[in-house]
Write a structure and sequence with these properties.
mainly alpha, 61% helix
Length: 56
């Protein structure tokens, strides 16, 4: 019996899509940006630049 052709939407080629890497990088970059902004807000708050005591 001849081997049947495989479907294009199955198999190892579909498990690694080029878009998966992009979306993963975008999520990591977004997380890094959020953490950096939170850290900046904390530092500015602790130094007194940001917050209730910032206005003279």
């Amino acid at each position: 019996m001849p081997e049947l052709p495989s479907h294009q939407d199955t198999g190892p080629a579909m498990s690694e899509s080029p878009l998966d890497g992009r979306s993963r990088r975008r999520k990591v970059l977004g997380a890094v940006v959020v953490v950096a902004l939170v850290a900046l807000a904390v530092v500015l708050h602790l130094t007194g630049v940001l917050g209730a005591e910032g206005h003279s």
